[in-house]
């Protein structure tokens, strides 16, 4: 058990870092059990992500040249992450209606704690699972292939990640935690306003 647990409602910094790649966002702690965290992002939160040389947002490895500021829009997002897992289970709801859109499986390196929050690295491939946990599909396979060409990934890694993902799908369909829990009915504290990325986010 870590010496320090973050408190509900506390803002923390989430960073994805590898070589020159940078992605960072402030998130609100919903729960920190030590071996599991739930982190909330709301419309209006500011963050930074990949951009090209002209400052335009990009998801293209070859075009990435800098980070660009942006503002989270359209969806409420709740990340459920168990330490040691190579994925986050993310719930998305529409901003105004709270319609539950999907379970979004974001493959990423196992989470690491920092003094300011958490670090990991996105692994590009994702999986979308319907709210009833039956229909599903892969997402961003083309971007992973681009990552293979860029030299970040291998075809063997793609096969391993897909096998891992099918295991997560099996957990979802069986109702294993967190899928069988009441998270789709969760709502944030009414007093939680938008968060702004601190200027020293990369220090």
Give a verbal description of the structure:
With 203 residues, the chain is mostly beta strands. It has a single domain (11-180), classed as FomD-like (FomD barrel-like fold), CATH 2.40.380.10. Helix content is 15%, strand content 40%. It is built from two helices and twelve strands, in the order ββββββββββββαα. The strands form two sheets. The chain has a ten-stranded mixed sheet. The longest helix is centred in the C-terminal third of the chain and has 20 residues, at 155-174. The protein is globular and about 40 Å long. The model has no long low-confidence stretch (mean pLDDT 94).
What distinguishing features does this structure have?
single chain, 203 residues, mainly beta, FomD barrel-like fold, 10-stranded mixed beta sheet, two-stranded antiparallel ribbon, 2 helices
Question: Could you give the topology of this structure?
Answer:
Elements (H helix, E strand, L loop, with lengths): L10 E8 L2 E12 L3 E6 L4 E6 L14 E6 L3 E8 L4 E8 L5 E9 L3 E2 L3 E4 L1 E8 L6 E4 L1 H10 L4 H20 L29
Parallel strand pairs: 1-10
Antiparallel strand pairs: 1-2, 2-3, 3-6, 4-5, 6-7, 7-8, 8-11, 9-10, 11-12
Question: What is the CATH fold-level name?
Answer: FomD barrel-like fold
Helix content: 10-25%
In round numbers, the mean pLDDT is: 94
- Sketch the topology as an H/E string, one letter per element: EEEEEEEEEEEEHH
Distance between the termini: 26 Å
Number of helices: 2
CATH superfamily: FomD-like
What CATH architecture do you see? Beta Barrel
Question: How is the biggest beta sheet arranged?
Answer: 10 strands, mixed
Shape: globular
Strand order of the largest sheet: 9-10-1-2-3-6-7-8-11-12
Instruction: Tell how many strands the DSSP assignment holds.
Output: 12
Q: Beta fraction of the residues?
A: 35-45%
What's the domain count? 1
């Amino acid at each position: 058990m870590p010496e320090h647990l973050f408190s509900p409602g506390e803002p923390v910094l989430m960073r994805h870092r590898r070589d020159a790649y940078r992605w960072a966002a402030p998130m609100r702690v919903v729960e920190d059990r030590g071996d599991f965290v739930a982190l909330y992002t709301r419309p209006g939160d500011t963050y930074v992500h990949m951009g090209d040389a002209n400052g335009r947002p990009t998801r293209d490895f070859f075009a990435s040249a800098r980070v660009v500021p942006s503002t989270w829009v359209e969806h409420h997002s709740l990340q459920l992450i168990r330490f040691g897992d190579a994925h986050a289970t993310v719930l998305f709801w529409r901003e105004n209606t709270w319609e539950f859109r999907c379970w979004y499986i974001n493959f990423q390196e196992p989470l690491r704690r920092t003094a300011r929050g958490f670090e990991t690295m996105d692994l590009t491939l994702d999986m979308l699972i319907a709210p009833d946990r039956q229909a599903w599909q892969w997402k961003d396979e083309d971007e992973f292939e681009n990552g293979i060409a860029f030299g970040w990934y291998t075809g063997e890694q793609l096969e391993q990640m897909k096998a891992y993902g099918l295991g997560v799908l099996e957990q979802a369909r069986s109702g294993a935690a967190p899928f069988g829990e009441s998270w789709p009915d969760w709502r944030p504290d009414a007093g939680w306003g938008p968060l702004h990325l601190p200027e020293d986010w990369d220090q």
